[in-house]
What we know:
The chain is α+β, with helices and mostly antiparallel strands and 156 residues long. The protein has 4 helices and 8 strands, in the order H-E-H-H-E-E-E-E-E-E-E-H.
Amino acid sequence: xxxxxxxxxxxxxxxxxxxxxxxxxxxxxxxxxxxxxxxxxxxxxxxxxxxxxxxxxxxxxxxxxxxxxxxxxxxxxxxxxxxxxxxxxxxxxxxxxxxxxxxxxxxxxxxxxxxxxxxxxxxxxxxxxxxxxxxxxxxxxxxxxxxxxxxxxxxx
Length: 156
């Protein structure tokens, strides 16, 4: 099992995003862990992942191939391993993008904290261990788009 401490380096660059969703934290948590639900929303605008797979248990794996919606072009694939699965409070997993040769790239860690606010859910995403500020900026945009898509999915 990979621990969060093992995945970090001494020059850690971190991203923290917060959003409130009009859904129970159980439903929001499940949207991140149930493969059928995940396939319906994961990816920023214009990108989807109809082949996403998730085995949401400690040491379980996930694989999220990102596909451009308008052309069907395979853009990249996110892969990782679950570190902590504590429904409905916390989910933590490694995060890496597959390289051209099929090997995982920079190992990062994503932690999601789900807080109940009168039936709504405050979600805090903490993504650590970026290689540089530019990569963090790209992920800030990507995760923001994912949150928009998750919000639309939960409202449907």
